[in-house]
Write a structure and sequence with these properties.
This protein is an alpha+beta fold. It has two domains: 206 residues, Biosynthetic peptidoglycan transglycosylase-like (Penicillin binding protein transpeptidase fold); 231 residues, Muramoyl-pentapeptide Carboxypeptidase, domain 2, CATH 3.30.1380. It is 49% helix and 8% strand. The protein contains 18 helices and six strands. It has a four-stranded antiparallel sheet with strand order 3-4-6-5, with helices on one face. Strand 1 and strand 2 form a beta hairpin. It is globular, with a radius of gyration of 28 Å. The N and C termini lie far apart (101 Å).
Length: 466
């Protein structure tokens, strides 16, 4: 009797597995072939046909034609693990399943960007278990046929951003009268906040209804591009000069405000040419006065010290030097034109000798140096004395001099600053002088600045100081 029951149960289990497998195979072979999306841009989607059949996706933009702030805002808001999973984020799916069971209905899909692309291209807005299975299978196909960058490009170009607004080309023109390449971090955060529920705009709610979530996304963008906010440790015993909470929050606000205005320049390296006058022009008089007083306090901490050099800014004396980082992203540095050949020769010869050198920092005008001080203060838990040990005041920094080229060297493989015990430092010690470079802050320097093995300087139109 028991054996018969076990046989019956086993047979039932095999039958269920067979039926489920057959069902999955049937769905797999009846879902669309996504291979043509490798090099073909769709001119419509299932969602467009259902919601706005008169719309076409004529404004198509390749990923390199879309602002990186938008791409990153969408990833941070919709799918932070996008580059690290294969289409199905099991953690999100688990939490979504729990939430749906608790509410007794579909309140959260837990979809990845790839799943949302599958839904937009081929599915309907309806929510049921069979649609989710089909969506998962299409997601599997997309992840196996397309690169992550292509998936992201497709999603940005077909996603719904409001009432009959499909594709980022249409969205950027509708909301901001600009192109996707011109979208800054504020606009990017707002657009990303629309994606979870674009139909809310059609219900008469103005864009302000998205400002709270947009503000959170903007905050995440700042964390992505700039040093993270550290906790204010007002009881720290290791800090010689700690800012109070009011000043700390003002610095957070100023960093966000300056970043908003200089975001593209910070990404490309152009921000290094920002003068103090340029920076102050972005701020209110009260904000400018706050920074002025902060610099006065900083000067008292560091003591009276002023590097003797020419700081009169003239963009015509600079040339750009483009360099790729470890991820292949290109960044521009500004170099004093009279010293460029010497620096390039140094880098080329170091490479020939298998010495991994790169530029971490070059010329920085006084306005950008102030922005770096603000960022350093935040990064160091609002301890002003610690921040100033790492980023000097403009008057104390050779990076602000225009009659010399100050370079912070790093390791090309790791991006980290050259350290005293590294092969790169030993090579510079032995060879840098051949190219006219001299270490500025040695172990025995008289300037009161800590020894910096990564910091080297080329004096222009004059003999190297002994």
């Amino acid at each position: 009797m028991i054996k018969s029951a076990m046989k019956a149960a086993g047979f039932s289990l095999v039958l269920i597995v067979f039926i489920l497998t057959s069902l999955l195979l049937f769905i797999y072979f009846t879902t669309p072939n996504v291979s043509d999306l490798i090099d073909r841009n769709p001119n419509t989607t299932s969602f467009i046909k259902i919601k706005c059949p008169e719309v076409s996706l004529q404004r198509w933009h390749q990923l390199n034609e879309i602002s990186p702030f938008l791409s990153n805002a969408v990833i941070l808001a919709e799918d932070p693990q996008f580059y690290y999973h294969r289409g199905l984020n099991w953690g999100n799916i688990y939490h979504a399943l729990k939430a749906n069971i608790r509410h007794g209905e579909f309140v959260w899909g837990g979809s990845s960007i790839t799943m949302q692309l599958a839904k937009n291209l081929y599915m309907t807005p309806s929510k049921n278990i069979f649609r989710k299975i089909k969506e998962a299978i299409i997601t599997f196909k997309l992840e196996n046929k397309l690169s992550k960058k292509r998936i992201l490009e497709l999603y940005l170009n077909v996603a719904e951003w409001g009432p009959c607004i499909f594709g980022i080309g249409n969205a950027s023109q509708y909301y901001f009268k600009n192109t996707p390449a011109e979208i800054g971090p504020h606009e990017a955060a707002f657009l990303a906040s629309i994606l979870p529920n674009p139909k809310l705009i059609t219900k008469g709610k103005p864009p302000d209804s998205f400002m709270n979530s947009g503000a959170n996304i903007f905050y995440e963008l700042i964390q992505y591009y700039l040093p993270p906010i550290a906790a204010l440790d007002s009881g720290s015993t290791s800090c010689d000069f700690m800012l109070n909470e009011i000043d700390a929050r003002r610095i957070d606000y100023l960093i966000a405000k300056i970043f908003s205005n200089l975001a593209f320049d910070i990404k490309t390296g152009m921000a290094s040419l920002t003068t103090r006058n340029d920076l102050m022009a972005l701020l209110t008089p009260d904000e400018g006065e706050f920074i002025k007083n902060l610099l006065i306090r900083s000067n008292k901490i560091l003591g009276e010290h002023d590097i003797e050099c020419n700081r009169s800014f003239d963009k015509n004396i600079f040339v750009t030097f483009k360099q790729k980082d470890q991820l292949g992203n290109e960044k521009s540095f500004w170099l004093n034109s009279d010293a460029t050949d010497a620096l390039i020769s140094l880098l080329v010869d170091a490479s020939k000798e298998k010495v991994s050198l790169k530029i971490n920092s070059a010329y920085r005008s006084d306005g950008y140096q102030i922005f770096l001080i603000l960022s350093s203060i935040r990064k160091n838990g609002y301890c002003l004395s610690k921040a100033l040990a790492l980023v000097a005041l403009p008057k104390n920094s050779e990076h602000v001099c225009t009659d010399r080229l100050a370079i912070d060297f790093g390791n090309a493989s790791t991006g980290k600053a050259v350290s005293e015990d590294s092969k790169e430092y030993r090579w510079l010690e032995e060879n840098a002088s051949k190219y006219g470079f001299k270490q500025t802050y040695t172990k025995t320097n008289m300037s009161g600045i800590d020894f910096e093995p990564w910091h080297w300087c080329y004096h222009i139109n004059q003999q190297l100081k002994q």
